[in-house]
Amino acid sequence: MFLNHYIKKIMVNVKFIIKILFDLCVDLAAFMAKSITTTDHKMIGQLYIFMGFFSSLIGTFFSYLIRSHLSSPDQTGILLDNVSLYNSVVTLHGIIMIFMFVMPILIGGFGNFFLPIMIGAPEMAFPRLNNMSFWLLPCSFFFLVMSMLSHSGSSYGPGTGWTIYPPLSTLIYSPGTAVDFLIGSLHLAGLSSLLGAINFIVTFVHMRTFKPLDIPLFAWSIFVTSFLLLLAVPVLAGGLTMLITDRHFGTCFFDPFSGGDPILYQHIFWFFGHPEVYILIMPAFGIVSHVIPHFSNKRIFGKIGMIAAMVSIGILGFIVWAHHMYTVGMDVDSRAFFTTATMIIAIPTGIKVFSWLATIWGGVIIMTPAMLFSLAFVLLFTVGGLTGLVLANAAIDVSLHDTYYVVAHFHYVLSMGAVFAIFSGFYYWIEFISSKIIDPITYKLAYVHFFVFFIGVNLTFFPMHFLGLAGMPRRIPCYPQLFAFWNYISSLGSLISIVSVFIFLLIMIRIFVDKKYIYYIDDKIITVLYNTNSGVIYSRN
After folding, report:
1. Degrees, nearest 5: CA angle 14-17-21
2. What does the pLDDT look like over 235-267, one tens digit per residue?
3. Alpha carbon separation from 321 to 40, 338, 339, 341 (Å, rounded)
4. pLDDT, tens digit, for every residue of 143-202?
5. What does pTM read for this prediction?
6. Which residues have C-beta within 8 Å of that of residue 332, sequence separation ≥ 6?
7. In sequence order, what are the beta bridge partners of 527?
8. Pairing mode, if any, of strands 535-540 and 524-531?
9. Do residues 377 and 417 lie in contact, with contact meaning Cβ atoms separated by under 8 Å?
10. Angle CA(348)–CA(354)–CA(360) in degrees, nearest 5?
Protein backbone atom coordinates (compact mmCIF):
# COMPACT_ATOMS: atom_id res chain seq x y z
CA MET A 1 0.00 0.00 0.00
CA PHE A 2 2.82 2.37 0.91
CA LEU A 3 4.51 1.73 -2.47
CA ASN A 4 1.25 2.14 -4.40
CA HIS A 5 0.69 5.54 -2.76
CA TYR A 6 4.05 6.84 -4.03
CA ILE A 7 3.55 5.33 -7.49
CA LYS A 8 0.23 7.20 -7.76
CA LYS A 9 1.89 10.46 -6.69
CA ILE A 10 4.65 9.98 -9.28
CA MET A 11 2.08 9.25 -12.00
CA VAL A 12 0.12 12.41 -11.15
CA ASN A 13 3.33 14.48 -11.37
CA VAL A 14 4.32 12.83 -14.67
CA LYS A 15 0.86 13.57 -16.12
CA PHE A 16 1.16 17.19 -14.95
CA ILE A 17 4.58 17.60 -16.59
CA ILE A 18 3.38 15.99 -19.83
CA LYS A 19 0.37 18.34 -19.86
CA ILE A 20 2.61 21.38 -19.36
CA LEU A 21 4.94 20.27 -22.16
CA PHE A 22 1.98 19.58 -24.46
CA ASP A 23 0.45 23.02 -23.76
CA LEU A 24 3.85 24.62 -24.34
CA CYS A 25 4.27 22.82 -27.69
CA VAL A 26 0.75 23.84 -28.80
CA ASP A 27 1.38 27.47 -27.83
CA LEU A 28 4.76 27.41 -29.58
CA ALA A 29 3.30 25.89 -32.75
CA ALA A 30 0.53 28.53 -32.85
CA PHE A 31 3.10 31.26 -32.23
CA MET A 32 5.38 30.03 -35.05
CA ALA A 33 2.46 29.69 -37.49
CA LYS A 34 1.47 33.29 -36.83
CA SER A 35 5.05 34.56 -36.86
CA ILE A 36 5.84 33.51 -40.44
CA THR A 37 3.77 36.30 -41.97
CA THR A 38 3.59 38.75 -39.08
CA THR A 39 4.44 42.41 -39.57
CA ASP A 40 3.89 43.35 -35.92
CA HIS A 41 7.08 44.90 -34.57
CA LYS A 42 6.43 43.47 -31.10
CA MET A 43 6.10 39.89 -32.32
CA ILE A 44 9.18 40.26 -34.54
CA GLY A 45 11.06 41.55 -31.49
CA GLN A 46 9.93 38.47 -29.53
CA LEU A 47 11.14 36.24 -32.37
CA TYR A 48 14.57 37.89 -32.33
CA ILE A 49 14.79 37.39 -28.55
CA PHE A 50 13.78 33.73 -28.82
CA MET A 51 16.30 33.18 -31.65
CA GLY A 52 19.04 34.91 -29.68
CA PHE A 53 18.57 32.90 -26.49
CA PHE A 54 18.33 29.64 -28.47
CA SER A 55 21.63 30.44 -30.24
CA SER A 56 23.24 31.41 -26.94
CA LEU A 57 22.73 27.87 -25.62
CA ILE A 58 24.78 26.47 -28.50
CA GLY A 59 27.44 29.18 -28.20
CA THR A 60 27.68 28.63 -24.42
CA PHE A 61 27.99 24.88 -24.97
CA PHE A 62 30.93 25.52 -27.31
CA SER A 63 32.55 27.80 -24.73
CA TYR A 64 32.24 25.02 -22.13
CA LEU A 65 33.87 22.58 -24.59
CA ILE A 66 36.80 25.00 -24.95
CA ARG A 67 37.26 25.55 -21.22
CA SER A 68 36.82 21.86 -20.30
CA HIS A 69 39.45 20.96 -22.91
CA LEU A 70 41.86 23.55 -21.47
CA SER A 71 41.31 22.47 -17.86
CA SER A 72 44.46 20.31 -18.08
CA PRO A 73 47.75 21.11 -19.87
CA ASP A 74 47.98 17.91 -21.95
CA GLN A 75 45.92 17.03 -25.02
CA THR A 76 43.64 14.58 -23.22
CA GLY A 77 40.81 17.10 -22.94
CA ILE A 78 37.26 16.61 -24.12
CA LEU A 79 38.26 17.32 -27.75
CA LEU A 80 41.23 14.88 -27.43
CA ASP A 81 44.09 15.61 -29.83
CA ASN A 82 41.94 16.87 -32.71
CA VAL A 83 43.45 20.35 -33.09
CA SER A 84 41.34 21.18 -36.16
CA LEU A 85 38.12 20.39 -34.27
CA TYR A 86 39.28 22.60 -31.39
CA ASN A 87 39.88 25.47 -33.85
CA SER A 88 36.42 24.96 -35.34
CA VAL A 89 34.76 25.08 -31.91
CA VAL A 90 36.61 28.33 -31.10
CA THR A 91 35.53 29.83 -34.45
CA LEU A 92 31.88 28.86 -34.12
CA HIS A 93 31.68 30.01 -30.48
CA GLY A 94 32.77 33.52 -31.46
CA ILE A 95 30.52 33.84 -34.51
CA ILE A 96 27.41 32.44 -32.78
CA MET A 97 27.79 34.67 -29.73
CA ILE A 98 28.32 37.85 -31.80
CA PHE A 99 26.05 37.42 -34.82
CA MET A 100 23.41 35.03 -33.47
CA PHE A 101 23.09 36.01 -29.80
CA VAL A 102 24.11 39.55 -28.85
CA MET A 103 23.10 41.38 -32.05
CA PRO A 104 19.69 39.69 -32.51
CA ILE A 105 18.62 40.32 -28.91
CA LEU A 106 19.96 43.85 -28.33
CA ILE A 107 19.22 45.33 -31.76
CA GLY A 108 16.61 43.06 -33.35
CA GLY A 109 14.77 42.07 -30.16
CA PHE A 110 14.72 45.05 -27.81
CA GLY A 111 15.19 47.49 -30.71
CA ASN A 112 12.20 46.24 -32.72
CA PHE A 113 9.96 45.94 -29.70
CA PHE A 114 10.65 49.31 -28.10
CA LEU A 115 11.90 51.82 -30.71
CA PRO A 116 8.43 52.48 -32.27
CA ILE A 117 6.88 52.71 -28.79
CA MET A 118 9.55 55.10 -27.52
CA ILE A 119 9.25 57.50 -30.47
CA GLY A 120 5.44 57.36 -30.57
CA ALA A 121 5.23 55.50 -33.91
CA PRO A 122 2.46 52.94 -34.55
CA GLU A 123 4.77 50.53 -36.36
CA MET A 124 8.16 50.29 -38.10
CA ALA A 125 8.44 52.21 -41.37
CA PHE A 126 8.71 49.03 -43.48
CA PRO A 127 6.85 46.22 -41.67
CA ARG A 128 7.29 43.55 -44.36
CA LEU A 129 10.99 44.37 -44.66
CA ASN A 130 11.13 43.94 -40.89
CA ASN A 131 9.71 40.43 -41.23
CA MET A 132 12.21 39.62 -43.98
CA SER A 133 15.09 40.93 -41.84
CA PHE A 134 14.25 38.42 -39.15
CA TRP A 135 13.73 35.38 -41.39
CA LEU A 136 17.10 35.93 -43.05
CA LEU A 137 18.62 35.18 -39.64
CA PRO A 138 17.39 31.54 -39.32
CA CYS A 139 18.59 31.05 -42.91
CA SER A 140 21.99 32.38 -41.83
CA PHE A 141 21.94 30.04 -38.84
CA PHE A 142 21.14 27.10 -41.17
CA PHE A 143 24.22 27.90 -43.26
CA LEU A 144 26.24 28.09 -40.03
CA VAL A 145 25.01 24.62 -39.03
CA MET A 146 25.99 23.35 -42.49
CA SER A 147 29.43 24.88 -41.93
CA MET A 148 29.72 22.98 -38.61
CA LEU A 149 28.85 19.68 -40.32
CA SER A 150 30.99 20.17 -43.45
CA HIS A 151 34.46 18.74 -43.94
CA SER A 152 37.43 21.09 -43.85
CA GLY A 153 40.59 19.12 -44.41
CA SER A 154 40.97 16.47 -41.72
CA SER A 155 38.13 17.75 -39.52
CA TYR A 156 34.64 19.23 -39.45
CA GLY A 157 33.80 22.91 -39.38
CA PRO A 158 35.78 26.07 -40.20
CA GLY A 159 39.00 26.28 -38.16
CA THR A 160 39.91 29.81 -39.21
CA GLY A 161 38.96 31.79 -36.11
CA TRP A 162 35.98 34.18 -36.23
CA THR A 163 38.10 36.71 -38.18
CA ILE A 164 38.52 34.22 -41.12
CA TYR A 165 42.02 35.50 -41.92
CA PRO A 166 43.71 34.38 -45.14
CA PRO A 167 45.89 32.48 -45.93
CA LEU A 168 44.34 30.10 -43.33
CA SER A 169 40.90 30.59 -44.92
CA THR A 170 42.13 30.05 -48.50
CA LEU A 171 41.36 26.86 -50.40
CA ILE A 172 44.89 25.50 -49.83
CA TYR A 173 44.70 25.55 -46.02
CA SER A 174 40.90 25.20 -45.61
CA PRO A 175 39.69 22.81 -48.32
CA GLY A 176 36.11 21.63 -48.40
CA THR A 177 32.91 23.64 -48.06
CA ALA A 178 33.00 24.63 -44.37
CA VAL A 179 34.47 28.11 -44.98
CA ASP A 180 32.15 28.66 -47.96
CA PHE A 181 29.07 27.94 -45.83
CA LEU A 182 30.49 30.22 -43.14
CA ILE A 183 30.92 33.08 -45.62
CA GLY A 184 27.36 32.51 -46.88
CA SER A 185 26.08 32.58 -43.31
CA LEU A 186 27.81 35.90 -42.60
CA HIS A 187 26.50 37.39 -45.86
CA LEU A 188 22.91 36.57 -44.85
CA ALA A 189 23.40 37.81 -41.29
CA GLY A 190 24.93 41.01 -42.67
CA LEU A 191 22.02 41.51 -45.09
CA SER A 192 19.58 41.00 -42.21
CA SER A 193 21.41 43.64 -40.14
CA LEU A 194 21.60 46.04 -43.09
CA LEU A 195 17.87 45.89 -43.86
CA GLY A 196 17.08 46.27 -40.16
CA ALA A 197 19.38 49.30 -39.90
CA ILE A 198 17.68 51.03 -42.86
CA ASN A 199 14.30 50.35 -41.26
CA PHE A 200 15.38 51.77 -37.89
CA ILE A 201 16.84 54.94 -39.43
CA VAL A 202 13.77 55.70 -41.57
CA THR A 203 11.44 54.97 -38.64
CA PHE A 204 13.41 57.21 -36.25
CA VAL A 205 13.74 60.12 -38.70
CA HIS A 206 10.28 60.16 -40.31
CA MET A 207 7.87 58.62 -37.79
CA ARG A 208 8.82 60.11 -34.44
CA THR A 209 6.22 62.25 -32.69
CA PHE A 210 8.55 63.70 -30.03
CA LYS A 211 11.29 66.31 -30.12
CA PRO A 212 14.76 64.74 -30.45
CA LEU A 213 15.77 65.54 -26.87
CA ASP A 214 12.52 64.06 -25.51
CA ILE A 215 13.26 60.68 -27.08
CA PRO A 216 14.57 58.06 -24.59
CA LEU A 217 18.26 57.12 -24.69
CA PHE A 218 17.62 53.53 -25.75
CA ALA A 219 15.94 54.76 -28.96
CA TRP A 220 18.95 57.04 -29.54
CA SER A 221 21.33 54.13 -29.03
CA ILE A 222 19.48 52.06 -31.67
CA PHE A 223 19.56 55.04 -34.07
CA VAL A 224 23.35 55.50 -33.70
CA THR A 225 23.92 51.74 -33.93
CA SER A 226 21.93 51.63 -37.18
CA PHE A 227 24.28 54.16 -38.79
CA LEU A 228 27.27 52.08 -37.69
CA LEU A 229 25.69 49.00 -39.25
CA LEU A 230 24.90 50.89 -42.45
CA LEU A 231 28.53 51.98 -42.87
CA ALA A 232 30.39 48.93 -41.53
CA VAL A 233 28.51 45.85 -42.79
CA PRO A 234 29.01 46.53 -46.56
CA VAL A 235 32.78 46.63 -45.92
CA LEU A 236 32.66 43.15 -44.38
CA ALA A 237 30.50 41.94 -47.28
CA GLY A 238 33.10 43.25 -49.73
CA GLY A 239 35.97 41.53 -47.92
CA LEU A 240 34.10 38.21 -47.73
CA THR A 241 33.19 38.43 -51.43
CA MET A 242 36.86 39.02 -52.31
CA LEU A 243 37.79 36.01 -50.17
CA ILE A 244 35.30 33.66 -51.82
CA THR A 245 36.42 34.77 -55.30
CA ASP A 246 40.00 34.02 -54.20
CA ARG A 247 38.83 30.55 -53.17
CA HIS A 248 36.82 29.61 -56.26
CA PHE A 249 37.11 32.12 -59.12
CA GLY A 250 40.86 32.53 -59.62
CA THR A 251 41.33 36.03 -58.18
CA CYS A 252 44.32 36.80 -55.95
CA PHE A 253 43.31 39.70 -53.70
CA PHE A 254 44.94 38.09 -50.66
CA ASP A 255 47.50 35.75 -52.28
CA PRO A 256 51.03 37.19 -51.86
CA PHE A 257 52.50 34.79 -54.45
CA SER A 258 50.30 36.33 -57.14
CA GLY A 259 50.60 40.00 -56.17
CA GLY A 260 47.90 40.05 -53.48
CA ASP A 261 48.22 41.12 -49.85
CA PRO A 262 46.79 39.16 -46.89
CA ILE A 263 47.20 42.29 -44.73
CA LEU A 264 44.60 43.99 -46.96
CA TYR A 265 42.01 41.54 -45.61
CA GLN A 266 42.91 42.51 -42.05
CA HIS A 267 42.36 46.20 -42.86
CA ILE A 268 39.01 45.43 -44.50
CA PHE A 269 37.88 43.14 -41.70
CA TRP A 270 38.83 45.43 -38.81
CA PHE A 271 37.34 48.48 -40.54
CA PHE A 272 34.12 46.53 -39.96
CA GLY A 273 35.28 44.71 -36.81
CA HIS A 274 35.97 47.63 -34.54
CA PRO A 275 32.69 49.49 -35.22
CA GLU A 276 31.11 46.07 -34.67
CA VAL A 277 32.30 46.22 -31.06
CA TYR A 278 30.34 49.47 -30.61
CA ILE A 279 27.40 48.02 -32.56
CA LEU A 280 27.25 45.34 -29.86
CA ILE A 281 27.73 47.64 -26.86
CA MET A 282 25.78 50.77 -27.90
CA PRO A 283 22.28 49.30 -27.30
CA ALA A 284 23.62 48.02 -23.97
CA PHE A 285 24.43 51.65 -23.08
CA GLY A 286 20.81 52.51 -23.89
CA ILE A 287 19.37 49.77 -21.68
CA VAL A 288 21.57 50.69 -18.72
CA SER A 289 20.60 54.35 -19.21
CA HIS A 290 16.97 53.31 -18.60
CA VAL A 291 17.44 50.86 -15.75
CA ILE A 292 19.75 52.95 -13.54
CA PRO A 293 17.55 56.12 -13.46
CA HIS A 294 14.39 54.04 -12.93
CA PHE A 295 15.71 52.15 -9.91
CA SER A 296 17.58 55.19 -8.55
CA ASN A 297 14.32 57.20 -8.65
CA LYS A 298 16.07 60.03 -10.51
CA ARG A 299 16.30 61.44 -14.01
CA ILE A 300 19.36 60.46 -16.03
CA PHE A 301 22.26 62.86 -15.39
CA GLY A 302 23.41 64.80 -18.47
CA LYS A 303 21.11 63.47 -21.19
CA ILE A 304 22.52 65.74 -23.91
CA GLY A 305 26.04 64.69 -22.95
CA MET A 306 25.01 61.04 -23.10
CA ILE A 307 23.63 61.46 -26.64
CA ALA A 308 26.74 63.37 -27.72
CA ALA A 309 28.96 60.67 -26.19
CA MET A 310 27.19 57.92 -28.17
CA VAL A 311 27.55 59.88 -31.42
CA SER A 312 31.24 60.60 -30.65
CA ILE A 313 31.96 56.94 -29.90
CA GLY A 314 30.26 55.97 -33.17
CA ILE A 315 32.39 58.41 -35.21
CA LEU A 316 35.69 57.65 -33.46
CA GLY A 317 35.03 53.91 -33.78
CA PHE A 318 35.74 54.14 -37.51
CA ILE A 319 39.25 55.62 -37.21
CA VAL A 320 40.87 53.17 -34.77
CA TRP A 321 40.61 49.84 -36.62
CA ALA A 322 44.38 49.27 -37.00
CA HIS A 323 44.97 49.00 -33.25
CA HIS A 324 44.14 45.32 -33.84
CA MET A 325 47.12 45.13 -36.22
CA TYR A 326 50.12 46.62 -34.42
CA THR A 327 52.21 43.50 -35.15
CA VAL A 328 51.87 43.50 -38.97
CA GLY A 329 54.86 45.79 -39.52
CA MET A 330 53.14 49.16 -39.11
CA ASP A 331 55.27 52.30 -39.25
CA VAL A 332 55.85 54.44 -36.14
CA ASP A 333 53.64 57.35 -37.25
CA SER A 334 50.65 55.05 -37.91
CA ARG A 335 51.13 53.39 -34.52
CA ALA A 336 51.19 56.81 -32.84
CA PHE A 337 47.99 57.89 -34.61
CA PHE A 338 45.99 54.75 -33.78
CA THR A 339 47.24 54.74 -30.18
CA THR A 340 46.15 58.36 -29.71
CA ALA A 341 42.77 57.91 -31.44
CA THR A 342 42.01 54.81 -29.36
CA MET A 343 42.79 56.63 -26.11
CA ILE A 344 40.55 59.54 -27.15
CA ILE A 345 37.57 57.14 -27.26
CA ALA A 346 38.00 56.82 -23.49
CA ILE A 347 36.73 60.41 -23.09
CA PRO A 348 33.10 59.94 -24.31
CA THR A 349 33.07 56.49 -22.68
CA GLY A 350 34.13 58.09 -19.39
CA ILE A 351 31.36 60.68 -19.77
CA LYS A 352 28.81 57.86 -19.92
CA VAL A 353 30.26 56.00 -16.91
CA PHE A 354 30.41 59.13 -14.73
CA SER A 355 26.90 60.15 -15.83
CA TRP A 356 25.58 56.77 -14.63
CA LEU A 357 27.45 57.19 -11.33
CA ALA A 358 26.09 60.73 -10.96
CA THR A 359 22.58 59.38 -11.57
CA ILE A 360 23.02 56.79 -8.81
CA TRP A 361 24.55 59.33 -6.38
CA GLY A 362 21.94 60.57 -3.92
CA GLY A 363 19.16 58.43 -5.37
CA VAL A 364 16.83 56.07 -3.58
CA ILE A 365 18.25 52.83 -4.96
CA ILE A 366 16.10 49.71 -5.33
CA MET A 367 18.25 46.61 -5.80
CA THR A 368 16.14 44.63 -8.27
CA PRO A 369 17.73 41.95 -10.50
CA ALA A 370 17.69 44.42 -13.42
CA MET A 371 19.49 47.05 -11.31
CA LEU A 372 22.09 44.52 -10.11
CA PHE A 373 22.88 43.50 -13.68
CA SER A 374 23.19 47.18 -14.72
CA LEU A 375 25.50 48.04 -11.81
CA ALA A 376 27.61 44.97 -12.63
CA PHE A 377 27.67 46.14 -16.26
CA VAL A 378 29.12 49.51 -15.25
CA LEU A 379 31.80 47.85 -13.09
CA LEU A 380 32.83 45.11 -15.51
CA PHE A 381 32.64 47.27 -18.63
CA THR A 382 34.93 49.78 -16.90
CA VAL A 383 37.43 47.00 -16.13
CA GLY A 384 37.29 45.90 -19.78
CA GLY A 385 37.72 49.50 -20.92
CA LEU A 386 40.79 49.99 -18.72
CA THR A 387 42.47 46.86 -20.11
CA GLY A 388 41.54 48.20 -23.55
CA LEU A 389 43.51 51.36 -22.77
CA VAL A 390 46.49 49.16 -21.91
CA LEU A 391 46.21 47.37 -25.24
CA ALA A 392 45.75 50.67 -27.09
CA ASN A 393 49.41 51.44 -26.42
CA ALA A 394 51.30 49.98 -29.40
CA ALA A 395 54.50 49.37 -27.42
CA ILE A 396 52.66 47.23 -24.86
CA ASP A 397 50.32 45.55 -27.37
CA VAL A 398 53.26 44.13 -29.33
CA SER A 399 53.99 41.97 -26.27
CA LEU A 400 50.37 41.18 -25.36
CA HIS A 401 48.99 40.71 -28.89
CA ASP A 402 47.25 37.34 -29.37
CA THR A 403 47.69 36.38 -25.71
CA TYR A 404 44.97 35.58 -23.20
CA TYR A 405 45.16 39.19 -21.98
CA VAL A 406 43.32 40.17 -25.17
CA VAL A 407 40.76 37.37 -24.60
CA ALA A 408 40.16 38.67 -21.07
CA HIS A 409 39.78 42.25 -22.35
CA PHE A 410 37.14 41.63 -25.00
CA HIS A 411 35.19 39.19 -22.83
CA TYR A 412 34.99 41.78 -20.07
CA VAL A 413 33.57 44.21 -22.63
CA LEU A 414 31.25 41.74 -24.40
CA SER A 415 30.64 38.59 -22.34
CA MET A 416 30.33 40.66 -19.18
CA GLY A 417 29.28 43.97 -20.73
CA ALA A 418 26.75 43.29 -23.49
CA VAL A 419 25.45 40.05 -21.91
CA PHE A 420 24.91 41.65 -18.49
CA ALA A 421 22.97 44.43 -20.25
CA ILE A 422 20.87 41.80 -22.06
CA PHE A 423 19.89 40.22 -18.74
CA SER A 424 19.26 43.65 -17.24
CA GLY A 425 16.92 44.53 -20.11
CA PHE A 426 15.29 41.11 -19.90
CA TYR A 427 14.39 41.46 -16.21
CA TYR A 428 13.45 45.13 -16.65
CA TRP A 429 11.09 44.63 -19.60
CA ILE A 430 10.05 40.95 -19.50
CA GLU A 431 6.62 41.61 -17.99
CA PHE A 432 5.95 44.15 -20.73
CA ILE A 433 7.32 41.90 -23.51
CA SER A 434 5.57 38.70 -22.41
CA SER A 435 2.48 40.18 -20.71
CA LYS A 436 3.22 37.72 -17.90
CA ILE A 437 3.63 38.34 -14.17
CA ILE A 438 6.87 37.33 -12.47
CA ASP A 439 5.88 35.50 -9.30
CA PRO A 440 7.90 35.90 -6.06
CA ILE A 441 9.77 32.58 -6.44
CA THR A 442 10.89 33.44 -9.98
CA TYR A 443 11.91 36.88 -8.72
CA LYS A 444 14.15 35.28 -6.06
CA LEU A 445 15.59 32.91 -8.67
CA ALA A 446 16.60 36.01 -10.69
CA TYR A 447 18.76 37.14 -7.74
CA VAL A 448 20.34 33.68 -7.57
CA HIS A 449 20.93 33.83 -11.34
CA PHE A 450 22.76 37.15 -10.98
CA PHE A 451 25.11 36.08 -8.19
CA VAL A 452 25.95 32.68 -9.73
CA PHE A 453 26.53 34.25 -13.16
CA PHE A 454 28.59 37.13 -11.70
CA ILE A 455 30.86 34.74 -9.79
CA GLY A 456 31.13 32.34 -12.73
CA VAL A 457 32.14 34.81 -15.42
CA ASN A 458 34.61 36.67 -13.19
CA LEU A 459 36.20 33.39 -12.15
CA THR A 460 36.39 32.43 -15.83
CA PHE A 461 37.88 35.57 -17.31
CA PHE A 462 39.82 37.42 -14.60
CA PRO A 463 42.55 34.73 -14.40
CA MET A 464 43.07 35.17 -18.16
CA HIS A 465 44.74 38.52 -17.42
CA PHE A 466 47.43 36.65 -15.47
CA LEU A 467 47.78 34.04 -18.22
CA GLY A 468 48.19 36.76 -20.85
CA LEU A 469 50.77 38.66 -18.79
CA ALA A 470 52.65 35.37 -18.35
CA GLY A 471 52.69 34.99 -22.16
CA MET A 472 50.12 32.25 -22.87
CA PRO A 473 49.01 32.52 -26.53
CA ARG A 474 45.30 32.32 -27.39
CA ARG A 475 43.73 29.67 -29.66
CA ILE A 476 46.08 26.86 -28.60
CA PRO A 477 44.70 23.44 -27.58
CA CYS A 478 47.54 22.54 -25.18
CA TYR A 479 50.02 24.50 -23.05
CA PRO A 480 52.96 24.08 -20.66
CA GLN A 481 52.48 23.10 -17.01
CA LEU A 482 53.37 26.70 -16.10
CA PHE A 483 49.85 27.86 -17.06
CA ALA A 484 47.93 24.94 -15.52
CA PHE A 485 46.70 26.57 -12.29
CA TRP A 486 44.97 29.63 -13.75
CA ASN A 487 43.52 27.54 -16.60
CA TYR A 488 42.01 25.17 -14.05
CA ILE A 489 40.48 28.11 -12.11
CA SER A 490 39.13 29.56 -15.38
CA SER A 491 37.55 26.22 -16.33
CA LEU A 492 35.98 25.99 -12.87
CA GLY A 493 34.42 29.43 -13.43
CA SER A 494 33.04 28.22 -16.76
CA LEU A 495 31.33 25.32 -14.97
CA ILE A 496 29.72 27.76 -12.51
CA SER A 497 28.53 29.87 -15.47
CA ILE A 498 26.87 26.76 -16.94
CA VAL A 499 24.95 26.36 -13.66
CA SER A 500 23.67 29.94 -14.09
CA VAL A 501 22.44 29.02 -17.59
CA PHE A 502 20.27 26.25 -16.12
CA ILE A 503 18.93 28.67 -13.50
CA PHE A 504 18.00 31.11 -16.28
CA LEU A 505 16.30 28.32 -18.25
CA LEU A 506 14.25 27.51 -15.14
CA ILE A 507 13.28 31.20 -14.89
CA MET A 508 12.23 31.24 -18.56
CA ILE A 509 10.12 28.10 -18.10
CA ARG A 510 8.43 29.54 -15.00
CA ILE A 511 7.63 32.80 -16.82
CA PHE A 512 6.36 31.38 -20.10
CA VAL A 513 4.57 28.28 -18.78
CA ASP A 514 2.73 30.30 -16.13
CA LYS A 515 -0.81 31.25 -17.19
CA LYS A 516 -0.90 34.65 -15.51
CA TYR A 517 -1.32 37.51 -17.97
CA ILE A 518 -1.29 41.27 -17.54
CA TYR A 519 -3.84 43.49 -19.27
CA TYR A 520 -3.71 47.29 -19.19
CA ILE A 521 -7.22 48.78 -18.93
CA ASP A 522 -7.73 52.49 -18.24
CA ASP A 523 -4.13 52.85 -16.97
CA LYS A 524 -4.83 50.26 -14.26
CA ILE A 525 -3.30 46.81 -14.34
CA ILE A 526 -5.84 43.99 -14.50
CA THR A 527 -4.36 40.56 -13.77
CA VAL A 528 -6.07 37.73 -15.63
CA LEU A 529 -5.47 34.22 -14.32
CA TYR A 530 -6.42 31.43 -16.73
CA ASN A 531 -7.45 28.27 -14.93
CA THR A 532 -8.63 25.29 -17.00
CA ASN A 533 -10.84 23.98 -14.17
CA SER A 534 -12.60 27.10 -12.99
CA GLY A 535 -12.62 29.31 -16.07
CA VAL A 536 -11.26 32.84 -15.87
CA ILE A 537 -10.58 34.62 -12.60
CA TYR A 538 -10.06 38.39 -12.60
CA SER A 539 -8.18 40.21 -9.87
CA ARG A 540 -7.54 43.95 -9.80
CA ASN A 541 -4.16 45.20 -8.53
Report:
1. 140
2. 999 999 999 999 999 999 999 988 999 999 999
3. 37, 8, 10, 10
4. 999 999 887 766 788 989 999 999 999 998 888 899 999 999 999 999 999 999 999 999
5. 0.90
6. none
7. 518, 539
8. antiparallel
9. yes
10. 145
